Amino acid sequence: MGEHAGIRVVHRSGSKLNFRPPVITNDSKFLLCASGECVKVFSTSTEECIHNLRGHTDLVTGVHLNPCNHLQAYSCSTDGTLRLWDFMDGILIKTYLIKYKIYSMYTSAYHKGVIFIIAPVQDSKGSEVFQLLALHLPQSGDQMVEASQLSVVLEDVSSNPAAVSLGRGGEYIASIKCLQLEVFFFKKQKSYRLFLKVDNKKGAKNTFTCVTCHPKDDCIATGHEDGKIRLW
């Protein structure tokens, strides 16, 4: 038997494709999927994987198209970085270094230069809680840049990507956790909280499971543990 000192892992594969919802490009020609430490780009016509966007060193937790350029996409990871890709050519354009692990992100064409992320922080008691942060992307020509300008939008939120949604025209953002719906209005810089009881008179479970905002109307839809949908 020979010595194993020179053996090293060169590639890991077999990661889930449904860990996060896939992203379909504006022309419907490509499908972007978070898969382990990379982002896979599939052709919707041939079903072939045409690119593996590699660069992250830990789990990729979100993929979003760049709202200002439909040929680019952002990816975030628990490695504490946000990366901008040219997914057509499979090229890494820029890496933003952030001191927090990123569990999900949200983009909006109405908030240029800002990406909303969910990251864990330590509270006053030393426990880990998740916050929704506004990350202001620095304007720099460097390929790797530190992004240190962050502001807290909402405290103590869920780490589930389905628990946050941006509202009409980017005017507000909605967040759910357990039995609470919180809506933050950017112009007023004020949030409003709505609470539900654990169950209702008919025995239905009211716990929130997901939220989404209507793109054109001031309407918020929430899903609940009993399978029902509420409109707010």
From TrEMBL:
<keyword id="KW-0690">Ribosome biogenesis</keyword>
<dbReference type="InterPro" id="IPR053826">
    <property type="entry name" value="WDR75"/>
</dbReference>
<keyword id="KW-0677">Repeat</keyword>
<dbReference type="GO" id="GO:0003723">
    <property type="term" value="F:RNA binding"/>
</dbReference>
<dbReference type="GO" id="GO:0045943">
    <property type="term" value="P:positive regulation of transcription by RNA polymerase I"/>
</dbReference>
<dbReference type="GO" id="GO:0006364">
    <property type="term" value="P:rRNA processing"/>
</dbReference>
<dbReference type="InterPro" id="IPR001680">
    <property type="entry name" value="WD40_rpt"/>
</dbReference>
<dbReference type="GO" id="GO:2000234">
    <property type="term" value="P:positive regulation of rRNA processing"/>
</dbReference>
<feature type="domain" description="C2H2-type">
    <location>
        <begin position="33"/>
        <end position="56"/>
    </location>
</feature>
<feature type="repeat" description="WD">
    <location>
        <begin position="201"/>
        <end position="232"/>
    </location>
</feature>
<keyword id="KW-0698">rRNA processing</keyword>
<keyword id="KW-0804">Transcription</keyword>
<dbReference type="Pfam" id="PF23869">
    <property type="entry name" value="Beta-prop_WDR75_1st"/>
</dbReference>
<keyword id="KW-0539">Nucleus</keyword>
<dbReference type="InterPro" id="IPR036322">
    <property type="entry name" value="WD40_repeat_dom_sf"/>
</dbReference>
<dbReference type="InterPro" id="IPR015943">
    <property type="entry name" value="WD40/YVTN_repeat-like_dom_sf"/>
</dbReference>
<keyword id="KW-0853">WD repeat</keyword>
<dbReference type="GO" id="GO:0032040">
    <property type="term" value="C:small-subunit processome"/>
</dbReference>
<dbReference type="InterPro" id="IPR013087">
    <property type="entry name" value="Znf_C2H2_type"/>
</dbReference>
<protein>
    <submittedName>
        <fullName>WD repeat-containing protein 75</fullName>
    </submittedName>
</protein>
<feature type="repeat" description="WD">
    <location>
        <begin position="53"/>
        <end position="95"/>
    </location>
</feature>
